[in-house]
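Tokens for Putative inner membrane protein. Go.
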Amino acid sequence: MKLRRRRLGVICSFLPFIAVCLSLIVSMEGDLPRSGKPETGLLFFILPGIASGLVARRRRVVNALLGALLALPFCYVLIHLFLLPSRSVWQELAWLFSAVFWCGIGGLVCLFVSRMFRH
């Protein structure tokens, strides 16, 4: 039962992470955000972390991060399929790893809220 819930937590982070990434890529209209322009779209990556945290009872942050890290190669391929290659590989990877960071923050938010309700 524990393993099934852990896998479900990873899947609940993996699939929404790809969906959020795809929706942001489509809305970017061909280019990653330029430097100096605030990127509020990255905050949507909190949602896969929260979804994973709600499903998993233990290791909420680890499940959220694991699902996001597993989705990273798929998102990298999506970026290269839909966006013009005007950015360097390092900038694209930095954008994706910041998305993983925000997904982990979503798992932390879920953990914080559950601890607050427990006390």
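The mean pLDDT is 82.
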